[in-house]
């Protein structure tokens, strides 16, 4: 995995959160996992194939997603559905950007949204898996990149 | 009554001419009907001639021309004897032809549907009864030159038989037509007339010409002598025929918009029939009028019959009945009374003409209708629908025609779908030639069908995707079943190949495929060259599993141009699923690659004792883990994190150096350089650590490769060797190696003394740290302490330097000593570095004692080396030693004398 490729994925997520919330979003210290990963409440997964194989996902807590959704919708309180929509939206944005940057040489799957911590997501990742914390307010969501 | 020879001769000639009319009728009627009935119509013409002559000879002639009984019928001359009188013979011959003419008219009208047997019976009735009786009325006594018939006695004139011959035939036809009805298909479901085209119009035209010619005898002979009237009669006949044609042609053209052949034919005949009665008594102009009006009447009569839905196959009724009536009336209208010689006034003449028309009509129609009606009740006059359909040639006579064979074989084929049937090929005929061509077409078709069936069979069973694409890249309808499995889609026909690949290959590949396909259809590009560009050669395709992932398979496409004289029409494509082979091949390549890497690594670690190497790996793995933890913990103080990582990486580098693992040394050196860059940053952020994470991942993958390899080596060793190396021996061995390498790099010579070094009883974890410390100190000594041989000679020292390690254990405390006989610590240089690093004032720096300076030696980033290289100069090694000491809970003493030695003593508690 090349640094500039990772940087591309990170920038997409960071600027997405920054754009929709209008608040500072920071990238945390990146680290590596071999055969494990981080999974929070909601996860949007994009499969990648072609010259590179593996997956990228964004995982976030329900509370964080709901707060982000509330800002976007201008509501005080939003339901769980919104959190799912939120993660779907972000994943689609990532997929769209990935497609723009790597589209012509990568195969990018239709993004899927997962709830809870399904084991099989980890199998889609190719080690070493980069875990990049994306920090907003007091929350940390994680961009997880596991491409060979 | 005796006649002159010339008269008799004329009558015989006239008879011959009338006889020819039978041939005319045969041509006319069979030409105007369909092929399937042509034989039936023709044979009727011949048969009715024979039948009518026969019965006319036996009965008819006597009833017509025998001595009259009350003007109603004749009573002698049955079985006409012609031995006695030349005249009777000639007269009979002439009249029998007339009788036949009357009878044969019916055959055309009722053609294509009347049973042959019924027709023969109707002919017999006509010649035995109907024709002779009414004929007697008009012509009775003619044999004797008298007027015996009741009509002729009243002044009725029908010179050559407009009524007597033609109308009688017409009336009988009408009667039968009313009984048997129209042919199937003559009128559609809305009652609209549908024309049934005759099959041979040229024959019909020839028939008319023959009739016209025969009519010269028919009318001309009716003088019953060769006199001055004959030429004018023939002339009148010709004029009327001509005007019949012209009038019908003109009016028919106006009414129907085209010169209908049948109207012209029937126009001529109507003219002939009309002039028949008055031909001897009219002028040329009158004849012209009579013929023309006859034609028009025929036209109107045809319309009338259509309206009444009476189906007259050849137009016999309009021609013979309607024009005959007109001709009979025309006698009164145009006839020269002198020539008529009846002595009647115009009105009386007209009246008697009409009486004749009516009475003959009533008789002929009445009797024939009665007879036919009864007969129809006994046995149907009409053939069955099926017989009518197949045609009377076959149904009635078993006589087939080529065209019938053609039709029936075609029908059989369409019914059964049996394409192996072939038509009989009669050479030298049109139908035969058609049959020949048809058979050729069928043979090709059958061959193609067999080929197609075989092709489809192949397509169903072949394991490759076999198909053809057109100019628009669309897949042709016939493709192999396997193609659907390859694309995991159904109904592929007419879909673009590029659309099928969309979503399965990258956009870049897809564009390449589009470009490539376009080039395939371009003849100017050589196929061999194009094959080298084939983007679908051993390509991996992906199918979204809709679960955030892909299933992949490997395909291989081969292309073949299909060319004809117009260029490249289509491309045949063979698409194979080569997943199994490719996966296997890739695995082999992967194994080969792995083996190569492992072999490379193997050469590098060949000199290292596996157990020690395992320990080394455990150490660097531990350190890498610590780096990752440092990252994951996300300490607020990023500089601290950097320092921690730096230290750990340096240790990895040192260990790698110890084992001469250049690739790891190189990687960790690069790692250090990256950290250096980050350290110089003022606004360090978490995001800046990304390259470190990436480098760590690279180190990790190297480590993993080594782990795999060493495990294999260990297995190998366990199996084949029983090597009982002592741990410290291994340590000493590797330190020796490190010294060797470092001295070679630096050009120094160093002896390694370890006589009193024994750490057998020391726990493994402490052993590892001892090794780490020794490694760092050896690097330190060779890089900074021990001088070059020249320097040493200069200082009066032995050319070769010396490193001595020793150990002793007392009260569970391990005392470890490391001495080199180098230049000792250069405190002035150290003072300078400390000043630089911590930006101290000159005064403060100078005030530092040697002990204090030594403390700095063990802090991060201070080194006395002038140049940074992979083994020294970053000031990290000593910092690490301090960390190890802290970790071990040990104490350290440093003794040094300038240009003499430097000693590091460690007191390590063994029970910590």
What is the fold's blueprint, element by element?
The complex is a heterodimer of chains A (148) and B (912).
Chain A: H1 3-21, E1 25-27, E2 31-33, E3 42-49, E4 54-60, H2 62-73, H3 80-102, E5 107-108, E6 112-115, H4 120-124, E7 129-136, E8 139-147
Antiparallel strand pairs in A: 1-7, 2-7, 3-4, 3-5, 3-6, 4-8, 7-8
Chain B: H1 5-32, H2 35-65, E1 68-69, E2 73-74, H3 86-109, H4 116-139, H5 150-153, H6 162-180, H7 201-220, H8 229-256, H9 261-276, H10 284-307, H11 316-334, H12 337-340, H13 346-378, H14 385-390, H15 392-397, H16 402-416, H17 430-461, E3 465-469, H18 481-487, H19 497-501, H20 507-520, H21 527-533, E4 539-544, E5 550-564, E6 567-577, H22 579-605, H23 610-633, H24 638-658, H25 662-679, H26 690-720, H27 727-746, E7 750-753, H28 764-785, H29 789-794, E8 801-810, E9 813-820, H30 827-838, H31 842-846, H32 850-857, H33 877-888, E10 891-897, E11 901-909
Parallel strand pairs in B: 7-8
Antiparallel strand pairs in B: 1-2, 3-6, 4-5, 5-6, 8-9, 9-11, 10-11
Helix pairs in contact in B: 1-2, 1-3, 1-7, 2-3, 2-4, 3-4, 3-6, 4-6, 4-13, 6-11, 6-13, 7-8, 7-9, 8-9, 8-10, 9-10, 9-11, 10-11, 11-13, 23-24, 23-26, 24-25, 24-28, 25-26, 27-28, 28-33, 30-32
Task: Walk me through this protein's architecture.
The complex is a heterodimer of chains A (148) and B (912). In chain A, strands 1, 2, 3, 4, 5, 6, 7 and 8 form an eight-stranded antiparallel beta sheet that branches. In chain A, helix 1 crosses helix 3 and helix 2 crosses helix 3. In chain A, strand 7 and strand 8 form a beta hairpin. Chain A is globular, with a radius of gyration of 14 Å. Chain A has one domain: CheC-like (Chemotaxis protein chec, 3-Layer(aba) Sandwich), CATH 3.40.1550.10. Chain A is α+β, with helices and mostly antiparallel strands. Chain B has five domains: 382 residues, Ammonium transporter AmtB like domains (Ammonium transporter fold); 53 residues; 116 residues, PAS domain (Beta-Lactamase, 2-Layer Sandwich); 137 residues, HPT domain (Four Helix Bundle (Hemerythrin (Met), subunit A)), CATH 1.20.120.160; 182 residues, Histidine kinase-like ATPase, C-terminal domain (Heat Shock Protein 90). In chain B, 63% of the residues lie in helices and 9% in strands. Chain B is built from 33 helices and eleven strands. In chain B, a hairpin with a 3-residue loop joins strand 1 and strand 2. In chain B, helix 23 packs antiparallel against helix 26. The longest helix of chain B is centred in the middle third of the chain and has 33 residues. The mean pLDDT of chain B is 87.
């Amino acid at each position: 995995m090349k640094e500039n490729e990772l940087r591309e994925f990170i920038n997409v997520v960071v600027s997405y959160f920054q754009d929709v919330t209008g608040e500072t979003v920071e990238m945390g210290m990146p680290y590596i996992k071999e055969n494990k990963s981080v999974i929070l409440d909601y996860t949007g997964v994009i499969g990648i194939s072609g010259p590179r194989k593996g997956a990228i996902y964004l995982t976030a807590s329900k509370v964080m997603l709901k707060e982000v959704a509330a800002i976007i919708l201008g509501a005080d309180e939003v339901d769980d559905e919104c959190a799912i929509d939120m993660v779907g939206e972000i994943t689609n944005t990532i997929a769209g950007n990935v497609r723009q940057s790597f589209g012509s040489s990568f195969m990018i799957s239709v993004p899927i949204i997962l709830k809870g911590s399904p084991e099989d997501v980890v199998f889609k990742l190719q080690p070493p898996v980069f875990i990049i914390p994306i920090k907003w307010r007091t929350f940390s969501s994680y961009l997880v990149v596991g491409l060979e | 009554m005796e006649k002159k020879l010339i008269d008799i001769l004329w009558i015989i000639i006239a008879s011959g001419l009338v006889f020819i009319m039978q041939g005319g009728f045969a041509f006319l009627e069979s030409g105007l009907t369909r092929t399937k009935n042509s034989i039936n119509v023709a044979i009727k013409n011949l048969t009715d001639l024979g039948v009518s002559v026969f019965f006319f000879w036996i009965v008819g002639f006597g009833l017509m021309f025998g001595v009259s009984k009350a003007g109603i019928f004749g009573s002698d001359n049955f079985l006409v004897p012609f031995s006695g009188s030349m005249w009777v013979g000639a007269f009979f011959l002439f009249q029998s032809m007339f009788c036949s003419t009357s009878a044969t008219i019916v055959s055309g009208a009722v053609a294509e549907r009347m049973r042959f047997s019924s027709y023969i019976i109707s002919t017999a009735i006509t010649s035995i009864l109907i024709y002779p009786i009414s004929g007697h009325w008009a012509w009775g006594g003619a044999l004797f030159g008298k007027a015996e018939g009741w009509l002729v006695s009243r002044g009725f004139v029908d010179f050559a038989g407009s009524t007597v011959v033609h109308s009688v035939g017409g009336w009988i036809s009408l009667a039968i037509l009313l009984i048997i009805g129209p042919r199937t298909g003559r009128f559609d479901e809305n009652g609209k007339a549908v024309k049934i085209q005759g099959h041979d119009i040229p024959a019909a035209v020839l028939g008319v010409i023959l009739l016209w010619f025969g009519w010269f005898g028919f009318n001309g002979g009716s003088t019953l002598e060769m006199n001055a009237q004959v030429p004018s009669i023939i002339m009148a006949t010709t004029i009327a025929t001509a005007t019949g044609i012209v009038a019908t042609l003109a009016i028919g053209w106006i009414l129907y918009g085209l010169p209908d052949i049948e109207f012209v034919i029937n126009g001529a005949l109507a003219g002939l029939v009309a002039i028949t009665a008055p031909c001897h008594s009219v002028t040329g102009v009158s004849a012209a009028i009579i013929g023309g009006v006859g034609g028009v009447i025929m036209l109107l009569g045809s319309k009338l019959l259509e309206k009444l839905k009476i189906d007259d196959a050849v137009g016999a009724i309009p021609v013979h009945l309607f024009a005959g009536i007109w001709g009979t009336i025309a006698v009164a209208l145009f006839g020269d009374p002198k020539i008529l010689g009846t002595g009647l006034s115009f009105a009386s003449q007209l009246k008697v003409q009409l009486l004749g028309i009516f009475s003959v009509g009533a008789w002929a129609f009445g009797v024939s209708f009665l007879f036919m009606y009864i007969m129809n009740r006994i046995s149907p006059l009409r053939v069955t629908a099926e017989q009518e359909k197949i045609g009377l040639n076959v149904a009635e006579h078993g006589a087939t025609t080529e065209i019938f064979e053609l039709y029936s074989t075609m029908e059989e084929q369409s019914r059964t779908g049996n394409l192996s049937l072939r038509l009989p090929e009669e050479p030298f005929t049109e139908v035969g030639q058609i049959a020949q061509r048809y058979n050729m077409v069928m043979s090709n078709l059958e061959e193609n069908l067999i080929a197609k069936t075989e092709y489809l069979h192949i397509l169903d069973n072949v394991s490759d995707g076999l198909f053809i694409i057109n100019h628009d890249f669309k897949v042709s309808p016939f493709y192999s079943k396997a193609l659907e499995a390859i694309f995991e889609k159904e109904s592929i026909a007419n879909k673009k190949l590029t659309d099928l690949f969309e979503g399965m290959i990258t956009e870049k590949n897809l564009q390449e495929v589009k470009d490539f396909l376009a080039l395939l259809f371009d003849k100017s590009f050589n196929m061999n060259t194009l094959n080298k560009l084939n983007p679908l050669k051993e390509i991996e395709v992906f199918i979204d599993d809709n679960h955030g992932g892909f299933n992949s398979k490997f395909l291989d496409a081969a292309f073949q141009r299909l060319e004809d004289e117009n260029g490249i029409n289509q491309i045949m494509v063979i698409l194979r699923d080569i997943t199994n082979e490719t996966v296997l091949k890739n695995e082999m390549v992967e194994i080969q690659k792995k083996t190569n890497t492992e072999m490379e690594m193997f050469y590098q670690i060949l000199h290292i004792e596996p157990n020690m190497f395992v320990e080394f790996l455990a150490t660097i793995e531990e350190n890498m883990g610590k780096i990752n933890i440092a990252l994951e913990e996300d300490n607020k103080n990023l500089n601290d994190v950097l320092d921690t990582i730096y230290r750990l990486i340096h240790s990895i580098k040192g260990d790698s150096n110890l084992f001469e693992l250049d690739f790891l040394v190189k990687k960790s050196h690069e790692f250090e350089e990256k950290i250096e860059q980050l350290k110089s940053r003022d606004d360090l952020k978490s995001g800046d650590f990304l390259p470190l994470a990436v480098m760590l991942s690279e180190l990790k993958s190297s480590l993993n490769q080594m782990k795999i390899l060493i495990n294999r080596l260990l297995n190998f060793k366990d199996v084949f060797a029983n090597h009982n190396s002592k741990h410290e021996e291994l340590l000493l061995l590797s330190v020796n190696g490190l010294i060797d390498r470092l001295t070679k790099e630096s050009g120094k010579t160093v002896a390694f003394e370890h006589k009193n070094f024994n750490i057998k009883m020391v726990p493994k974890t402490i052993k590892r740290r001892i090794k780490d410390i020794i490694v760092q100190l050896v690097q330190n000594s060779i890089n900074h302490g021990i001088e070059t041989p020249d320097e040493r000679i200069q200082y009066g020292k032995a050319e070769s330097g010396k490193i001595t390690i020793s150990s002793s254990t007392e009260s569970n405390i391990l005392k470890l000593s490391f001495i080199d006989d180098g230049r000792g610590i250069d405190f002035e240089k150290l003072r300078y570095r400390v000043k630089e690093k911590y930006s101290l004032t000159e005064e403060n720096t100078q005030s530092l004692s040697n002990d204090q300076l030594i403390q700095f030696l063990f802090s991060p980033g201070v080194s006395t080396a002038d140049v940074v290289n992979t083994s020294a100069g970053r000031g990290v090694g000593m910092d690490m030693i301090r960390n190890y000491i802290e970790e071990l809970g040990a104490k350290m003493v440093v003794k040094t004398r300038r240009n003499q030695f430097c000693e590091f003593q460690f007191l390590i508690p063994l029970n910590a």
